Structure formats: structure tokens, C-alpha cells
Amino acid sequence: MTGRQDNPSGEDSLIARYFRPLATDPGAFALSDDAAILRADDADIVVTTDAIVEGVHFLPDDPPDTIARKALRVNLSDLAAKGAVPSGFVLTLALRQAAASWLEPFARALGEDASAFACPLLGGDTVATPGPLMISITAFGRVPAGRMVRRSGARPGDLVVVSGTIGDAALGLDVLKRGAVAAALAGNPAAQAALVARYRVPQPRNALAAALRDHADAAMDVSDGLAGDLAKLCAASGVSARIDLGSLPWSAEAALLLACGAVRPELLVSGGDDYEVLCTIPGQQWPAFAAEAGQARVVVTAIGTVLAGASAPRFVDAQGHEIALQRLSYSHF
Amino acid sequence: MTGRQDNPSGEDSLIARYFRPLATDPGAFALSDDAAILRADDADIVVTTDAIVEGVHFLPDDPPDTIARKALRVNLSDLAAKGAVPSGFVLTLALRQAAASWLEPFARALGEDASAFACPLLGGDTVATPGPLMISITAFGRVPAGRMVRRSGARPGDLVVVSGTIGDAALGLDVLKRGAVAAALAGNPAAQAALVARYRVPQPRNALAAALRDHADAAMDVSDGLAGDLAKLCAASGVSARIDLGSLPWSAEAALLLACGAVRPELLVSGGDDYEVLCTIPGQQWPAFAAEAGQARVVVTAIGTVLAGASAPRFVDAQGHEIALQRLSYSHF
């Protein structure tokens, strides 16, 4: 391949064809420069970066459109939990080959999400790799100066709150890997599909950002498993917590699997890929937070209480017995 | 591995041990949160992202310290060419395993460069991969509002200028691959080492940033080969150019190899990994630019002239004959 002006290199024409249409922000210069401009406009710029790797965060036969959505949404989820409004992202795409049959649906879905979440592509780098596909995204958001919601602000007495339902993505991954969940749901393809969709395409809670800024003492997104991520939030805040397992929000599919004994709650609270918001809300703020979440059409559930102390968060069943968790979350190493 | 609070996960302890010391900016929150804060302070924030992949941008047996420096410096080089002052970076590190023998020198060298270039680590993501090592960095810099140096500002009559010397990294890669250059320099290990160092550890020209802002009409860094990158700059600016091959700045090693016929100039102007600045300077600004570059201890050389027109840039030898280049630059696809 050559790089002649009248016959641009494969890399340049790939970028022009698939990704230039996504670069709608003037600071992206239509991807024609080496860098982009991000204007802060008196806000703080929140920066987050998350990568997904084939065979680790998504499966080799996952459809390219769901891979694109997951790559962007795991970052949007971080911005949501920090109370930030998305403002753009840069993309690093490591590909074995530049196949139109993969790139076209990937770029189309990425563009649809960029548009839906008002988070345009600002720039990126496309590189060849002999190994697994990898998509690394750095996303930017804005918060009023000094207002980013930290992990470290939880205070004893706060309610522990999560959005959506917990554990579905871990169940979906089990379905894709033909594990116990797939067996238990053998006659229920709709339930299987619902869980797989939760694994492949997270639903970031950006609609909650303003309510989190206004009411939360601390927040993070649940990406590696509720139990482990709660432990991180508690450690950062210098507090402990007690979680009532009976109050955890389960999807209909998860409730069914729990009722028939096919899975145990431990799997649901230690599985990754939820991309829900975990936050702590002072009791007197809870009615207002819940009302604003309702207006944003996001279900939020109080699942426990922040306690003083430095011990690991405890998960307690309906009889008041503590559940010992062997594994709190996913760790890469 | 577990994620218990008193026994943090491998991933968390890896980050704490190797990378927290690099997170010296208050906006990095000591890597204890999900996101970092970037404050613009009335400047424009310049964003650039570049990834390097094992087997593509560096070799499997390259030392970890040089891999770290290259990963950061290819991004610093983009900031330099845009006239921006580095302000920080986020790191995505895809590793097969978390070996201290690799991570320790990698993180130490990264920290040394982050300190030397005043570009602290703001955040990142560390993921497992079954494939090649990959390091993706998104770097941030500041320019006074509206002052980023674009690719698209070149005007007919401008001088075409490059920093440093051209082609050495391509020669260094050939040495590492035991090609013709290695054979020609078989008795000269010092020359081999100098060229290999140019491939492994670029010297980004951040010292030129202010002079570029003040004097350049257009600039970019040379990463994929001078000929191809000049073609991109000309295309973005809607101009052409004539380059005098005889005026190109060669290192002593490159000059030796050219003199003995071991390599042809085409290799040097189409090889990648130079990470020098390519810019266009109005003639009346050239004395001031050259003087400021001298104060910054960066050699700059005028190698040709920007011309009106849309044809591809021409490379002309001492006899006025155009050299036809079969390959202008490196393309991943």
C-alpha cells in the first residue's frame, strides 16, 4: 500500500470512511489533524479510560456492533458515576485486519451511541496487531468546577444505593459459555437472550449524573462485581457497610434462577460487567434522589447502610446471617 | 485472587505498587478514583492518542524501559508539534502477565520521563491480554486558546523545515532485524547502537513548542515517514511542496551508509519512527525560528519550499531530477 495523496494509505482511507462521520465536534477537526482540542468552558474535565480485549471483556464471536457499544459504554458508565456530562472520546483500535464486514457495523453502532449519548469522537489511533482485538477508549466529561463525585466521600449513616439490577451480565456470560445458567434456562431462549444482552451491551446511567452531583456523598460504577467495588468505595472513604442481601434488586431472570437454586447470590454480587451506579446517599437526601432518578427513568434501590469502621463490607441474609464471599470481584492478575 | 480489602486484588496492588508514584498531579487523586480531573485554566486542552504494539511498534525483546519511554514519547512528540505544553497522560496497559521483572523497569522509566517532560500520570486501565503487549497512551497538553498549530496552515512560499535528522530510526530497525544496514555496519557496533537507540527511544521536540506557536504556519510530527507525512500536511493545507534531497539532514551514521551505497535516500524519507517535527515557516520568520530553536538546543533544517497546487510533494536531487518514491510511508493496513 502506498501513501500517495491521490491514493491514501489503507489506514487513512479506513479512518476517512468509517470514523470521520463520527467526528462531529469542531474540536475534532474532522480527524484531519494529529490532535483534538477540548474546551473546558470553566468546567472541570473528567477523564476516564477503559479498554476491552477480545477473549477477556468480550467473546471472539460477539457481534461487532455490540463490541463497539460496550467499548464506549463502559467509559460512559464511569462518567455517569462521577456526575459528569459526556463531551467526547478518543479511540484506539487494534485490529488484525481491516475487514469492511467488521468495521462497517462497528463504526455504525459506535456512531449511533456517540450520537445518543452526545459524546462525539475526537480522535484516535488505528493500529495493526497480530493478537486479539482491543479497543481502548479515553472519554471526557464536564462537571461544574470541584463537583466531581468521588469514591471517597461516603459517611457512616449514608444509604448504600445501586441502579438497575445486579448480576445479570455475569449470568449472560455464563449463558454464552454454556454453563449452569444456560442449562437451567435451556427451555427459555428469551431469558437467555435478555441476560446475554446485559453482558454484551451495558446500559450506562448517564441520566443519573445530575442527581448524583446533587445528592450523593460518593459514587462509582460497578464494573468488577458489586462486592469488590463496594469494598473499594468503602476503603477509599475509610468506612464499612452492611448490605441486606434480601433487598438487592434482581431481574426477573435472576430471581427465577435464584428461586430454582440454579445460582447462588454470591455469583451475582461478585460477577462483573454490571455497569450500574453504586453510590451512598445521606438519608435525608434519599427521597429527592429517588424522585429525580424516577424522573430520569432509572430504577434505584437502597441495599444497605454505610457504617463506621475499617472492616470489609458485610453481606447479611434475611435471617441476619453474614454470607462469606470467597471472591469479591474480577481481577485481571 | 481475591479482592478483599485487607488483601487487595493483583490488579489493585500492581497499580498501587508501580503506578501510584507516577500520579503526582492532584487531579489524579493518587489513582484512587475512577476518573481524573483535568483543569484547563483558560487554555485549550490538546488531546492526542497513540498506541504501540509488540511486534509492530517495538520488538518482543526490546527492554521494558525503552518500551515505556517510546510509548510516552510518541505522544509527547504530537504535543510538541502542536505547540502544546504537556500536562498529563492516561495509560492503558495490556499485559500477558504481571511480572515484576518487567513492570519495575517499565514503571521506573515511565516515571522518569513523566518527570523529565512534566507530564504526570493521571489515570489508566490495566488489562490482561492473551496476545501481544500493547500500550495505549492518551496525552494532554495546553495551548493558549485558539493557538494550536494545525496541519492545515501551510502557505505557498513557506519554507519546509524539519528538526533533528531523518531516517535513523528506520536504519535502527533494520539493524535489529539484521538486514542490509546491520551487514554494512558489521564492524561498527557504536554506529549500530546509535541507530538502534533512535528506533527505541525517540527524542520528542517539546523544547520547540513555543517557537512553533510563534512562527509556524503548519506542523505535525514525522511518525510514519517524512515523505508520507509531508504529503498529509500538504493535502490538509491544500498545497504542494518541493524538497531538495541534498539539503536533508542526515546523521553521521546515515551519511556513511548513503556514501557507501548501503542504503538509498528513499528508505530514509519513507521509513517511520523519526518523531521529529515537520513544519512550514514563512521566510521572514525563519531567522527568528532558527534562533529560538538554537536556544532550545534543537537543530532545525530548511529542506524545501511550499508550492501552490494540489500535486504530491516532489523530492528533487542535486541535479534537479525528481526521485520517484514507490512507498511514501508506513501504513498499518
Mean pLDDT of chain A: 92
Strand order of the largest sheet of chain A: 7-9-6-10-8-11-12
**Using CB atoms under 8 Å apart, which protein chain pair has the greatest interface?**
A-B, 88 and 88 residues
CATH C-level class of the largest domain in chain A is Alpha Beta
Structural class of chain A: alpha+beta
Work out the helix count of chain A: 11
Rg result of chain A: 21 Å
Please describe what this structure looks like.
Two copies of one chain form a homodimer. Chain A is α+β, with helices and mostly antiparallel strands and 333 residues long. Chain A has two domains: 135 residues, 60s Ribosomal Protein L30, Chain: A (2-Layer Sandwich); 173 residues, PurM-like C-terminal domain (Phosphoribosyl-aminoimidazole Synthetase, Chain A, domain 2, Alpha-Beta Complex), CATH 3.90.650. The first copy, chain A, contains eleven helices and twelve strands. The longest helix of chain A is centred in the first third of the chain and has 18 residues. The radius of gyration of chain A is 21 Å and the shape is globular. Chains A and B meet through helix 1, strand 1, strand 2, helix 2 and strand 3 of A and helix 1, strand 1, strand 2, helix 2 and strand 3 of B. Strand 2 of chain A pairs antiparallel with strand 1 of chain B.
Give the topology, please.
Two copies of one chain form a homodimer.
Chain A: H1 10-19, E1 36-38, E2 43-53, H2 64-81, E3 85-95, H3 100-116, E4 121-128, E5 134-144, E6 159-163, H4 168-176, H5 180-184, H6 189-200, H7 209-215, E7 218-222, H8 226-237, E8 240-244, H9 252-259, H10 265-270, E9 276-281, H11 286-295, E10 300-307, E11 314-316, E12 322-323
Parallel strand pairs in A: 3-4, 8-11
Antiparallel strand pairs in A: 2-5, 3-5, 6-9, 6-10, 7-9, 8-10, 11-12
Helix pairs in contact in A: 2-3, 4-6, 7-11
